[in-house]
Amino acid sequence: LDARSGALVWKMKADDHPAALMTASPSLHGDTLYVPVSSVEEASAASPGYQCCNFRGSVLALDAQTGGVEWKTYLVGEAKAPAEGESVWGPSGVAVWNSPSIDVKRGQLTIATGDNYSTPATELSDSIIALDLKTGAIKWHYQALEGDAWNVACYTQTGSNCDMDAGPDFDFGAGTVLAKGSDGRELVLAGQKSGIVYGIDPDSGKLVWENKVGRGSEGGGIVFGLAAADGKVFAPVSDRVIGEVDGFPPKPGVFGIDIATGKTLWYAESPADTCGDDKACVRGYGGSLSATPGLVFAGADDAHLRILDADTGKVLHDIDTGQEFETVNGVPAKGGAISGGVTAVAHKGQLIVASGYGFASKMPGNVLLVFEAK
How far, in Å, CA of 221 to CA of 45, rounded? Predict the structure, then answer.
């Protein structure tokens, strides 16, 4: 769109699959727009009449001025028709939920991918991947979990689209973060629904460290974005029980982790007494974090906005947004879960927060709140 008038300059369809969509913003570098492609086919598979699955996750590079495609890289091969006696197409999936991170120094972008929707499972699912900025060629990848083929039919037990040895559904929903540790070394950081945070060498793609901070489940674990500042990476953990879980204790809350070593510096547990009898109120942090030097801004599934000390994890401010508000435009409004890809944005002494997220039976709402620093 034209920034001044709002007039349409160009539009293009990033993918022709009927279930394809975008769950994250494109990333702009120079005159090139890098676009991640995801889908809802994983959920479509729960319908007994749906022929699963043939969506292919991808990333596109577009000319920002014209919308022309410079390159498109698929992250899984074309699905093959089921063999005789079978009903499911495959391979499929490997969606990109998150915005690409641009690494200008190395001429690459990094992404993190979701699971396969059907078998056979492939080598780029549940992976951290570096692509060449100019060509889209894959420079390296680190696969955090092999064999993770899953779709919603595996949860609902409807139809035949989960006639396979299903994986745990441990996508990477959260995008990658490139940040320096206290030792000056840069790492690519990523958090997975398994509850594990990874530190990856940005040149080789080799694992430097991993830290399992949450139990993980089909609902996460770490669902959306990490934040980093001052040699630390901050991870939001939901650990809501959805599907099967292991014996690891749940750890809903926010973790502060040393980037150089991967060691946990502090853990701020999500309060257990904020929800009462409200079934839509959930403990933990299913959304994204943001950080500035000294502070971490954490919107929670229980509708609270918490501002934490980045060095200690101490809660400095706790604001309950799950209430009715008088709005500037006169629309009746109430806050809810601060979740999903939405995060608090700090700008010129103000903190901007969207409150309300009804997906996955969480607390809906319709409020945009602006706080001013005192």
Answer: 23
- In the chain, ranges of CATH 2.40.10.480 domains: 12-172
Q: Using CB atoms within 10 Å of the CB of residue 172, give its burial: 0 to 12 exposed, 13 to 18 middle, 19+ buried.
A: buried
C-alpha span between 24 and 11 (Å, rounded) = 17
pLDDT, position 242: 63
- Mean of the pLDDT values across residues 22-33? 97
Measured distance CA(354)–CA(365) in Å, rounded? 9
- What's the whole-model pTM score? 0.95
Terminal-residue alpha carbon distance, the chain = 36
Classify domain 12-172 by CATH architecture: Beta Barrel (2.40)
pLDDT in tens, 178-193: 999 999 999 999 999 9
* pLDDT above 80 (res 85): no
Q: Residue 371 contacts by C-beta under 8 Å, 6 or more apart in sequence?
A: 319, 350, 351, 352, 353
Residue type, 285: Y
Write out the residue limits of the CATH 2.130.10.10 domain(s) in the chain. Answer: 174-374
- 280/257 Cα distance (integer angstroms): 30
CATH superfamily ID and name for 174-374: YVTN repeat-like/Quinoprotein amine dehydrogenase (2.130.10.10)
